[in-house]
Specification:
The chain is of the alpha/beta class and 255 residues long. The protein has two domains: 2-87, ATPase, nucleotide binding domain (Nucleotidyltransferase, domain 5, 2-Layer Sandwich); 97-244, Nucleotidyltransferase, domain 5, CATH 3.30.420.40. It has helices at 36-49, 69-80, 108-120, 154-164, 184-211, 224-228, 241-253; strands at residues 2-7, 11-18, 21-29, 59-64, 86-87, 97-98, 124-130, 133-139, 144-152, 215-220, 236-237. The protein starts with a strand and ends with a helix.
Length: 255
């Protein structure tokens, strides 16, 4: 089986693939001081819960936007999974032409998402990743990574609003019945959820116009299902897009 890890700023998502099928998926907090042995204990616990053995792993792939975590996680893969992990970065084959001013600046998760989206559609596409930041990644019909846009994520925006406005409470992120909120909680839910959906639709329209060709829009990230339902321009939601992209990049680099 193939072990994959997507290290984000807040959460790390781990997965196990048997062939091209994702058979296990786990989400843990990203902890910059977690040791390799602590990662190993997590691996052992998760594997045993799923009825797997650490020795079932034949390969590993990692993408990370948190540099301090990367070497520790690589060491854990070597020690506990007996696998030298492929970490997505400069020099790794992706099958995409990176048309950015400085390709090394592009987050590995964004490239991995683009690879997975490219495999889902043969047309031009835009990936919207709704995580700590909300990122928009544009891929041409010829398989070129063109760049995109970055804005604060939904949770960050909500936290900033609550911390700066003394009378606004912390709320659950949920869909209100109406856009016109008749109390503070519903008004905040309307602004956050419907407002973010409008942001996504608006940016997609601008990006598509600049790309000059029709696009397929794929959403991913922890909140993609909730927000995508309110968007008019999102065609499909794929919460595990990044993990699938890691599988595809691994296949391009390891025979």
């Amino acid at each position: 089986m193939l072990f994959v890890a997507d290290v984000g700023n807040v959460h790390t998502v781990l997965g196990l693939f048997r062939g091209d099928v994702l058979v296990e998926r786990w989400r843990v907090a990203t902890d910059k001081v977690r040791t390799a042995d602590e990662w190993g204990l997590s691996f052992k616990a998760f594997f045993e819960l799923g009825g797997h053995a650490l020795t079932d792993v034949r390969g590993a792939a990692i993408c990370s936007v948190v540099p301090p975590v990367s070497p520790v996680l690589r060491a854990a893969c070597r020690k506990y999974l007996n696998a030298e992990p492929l970490e997505v970065g400069p020099g790794v084959k992706t099958g995409l032409a990176i048309r950015c001013d400085n390709p090394r600046e592009v987050g590995s998760d964004r490239i991995v998402n683009a690879v997975a989206a490219r495999a889902l559609t043969s047309s031009a596409c835009i990936v919207v990743d709704m995580g700590t930041a909300t990122t928009f990644d544009c891929v041409s019909a010829r398989g070129e990574y063109l760049g995109g846009a970055i804005c604060p994520g939904l949770r960050i925006s909500l936290e900033a609003l609550v911390s700066r406005a003394a009378r606004l409470p912390r709320i659950e992120i949920a869909r209100p019945e109406n856009a016109i909120g008749r109390n503070t909680e519903h008004a905040m839910q309307s602004g956050i959820l419907f407002g973010y959906a409008a942001l996504v639709d608006g940016l997609i329209a601008r990006l598509e116009a600049e790309m000059g060709e029709p696009v397929e829009v794929i959403a991913t990230g922890g909140l993609c299902t909730l927000i995508a339902e309110e968007c008019q321009r999102v065609h499909q939601a794929k919460p595990d897009l990044t993990l699938d992209g890691l599988r595809l990049v691994y296949a391009k680099n390891v025979p």
